[in-house]
Design goal:
single chain; mainly alpha; 10 helices; 0% strand; globular
């Protein structure tokens, strides 16, 4: 259920720090400011992710944020795997995700991690990553609720990993899924009350 730890603790600690810093880059905030869309944290839900960027009405900015947030998680995993090994790849996956949720550059107030979660998973085990993306897309197509799509995809990921034979990543993804649920606490309350905004809805 876990990869063999082969790298030295010091090397893994360096990987953790580098991955955290990469994951901390707030691409949504940077893109919104560069395009004159304002401070993303004062728009809509205040989240720094692609869903909130979409609420500005700028689809290109939302797509760029989605790709870059996913890419930083994936890049952290691939670089750590190539430089060190599979144990470092899992360390990089966790800490790049943590960086997005709690970025040092924004006073540790970050996003909800959906794109970074999926990008990380695609790099860790692409078959399971594709299944998780398909899960998100299917739920989103039916409900138009980004938060519900994220929760279902995160909850299903450990199952997808076992199905594709990547049991060594299950514990990691259980931790990541728990963080996704923790970051969506307010969304869960709003969904229960029928007040959760749907994808593409502007929110003042």
């Amino acid at each position: 259920m876990l990869p063999a730890l082969e790298a030295s603790p010091l090397l893994l600690a360096l990987v953790a720090v580098a991955a955290y810093l990469l994951g901390s880059v707030p691409f949504g905030v940077v893109i919104a400011r560069a395009l004159g869309l304002g401070d993303l944290r004062a728009i809509g839900s205040g989240n720094i992710g692609a869903t909130n960027v979409l609420r500005t009405g700028h689809r290109g900015a939302a797509l760029a944020t989605l790709l870059l947030d996913a890419g930083k998680g994936g890049a952290a995993v691939l670089l750590a795997r190539a430089a060190v090994g599979e144990d470092a790849a899992q360390v990089a996956a966790f800490f790049s995700f943590l960086g997005h949720l709690y970025p040092v550059w924004l006073g540790f107030r970050g996003g909800k991690g959906v794109a970074t979660f999926l990008g990380t998973l695609l790099a860790l085990a692409w078959p399971a990553g594709l299944l998780a993306c398909a899960t998100w897309a299917a739920v989103a197509a039916v409900t138009r609720l980004s938060s519900l799509s994220a929760l279902v995809a995160a909850a299903a990921t450990p199952v997808w990993l076992m199905i594709v034979g990547r049991d060594e990543a299950v514990v990691l993804c259980l931790l990541l899924a728990a963080l996704v649920f923790q970051r969506h606490r307010e969304n869960i309350v709003r969904m229960r009350n029928g007040k959760e905004p749907r994808i593409g809805t502007r929110r003042d």
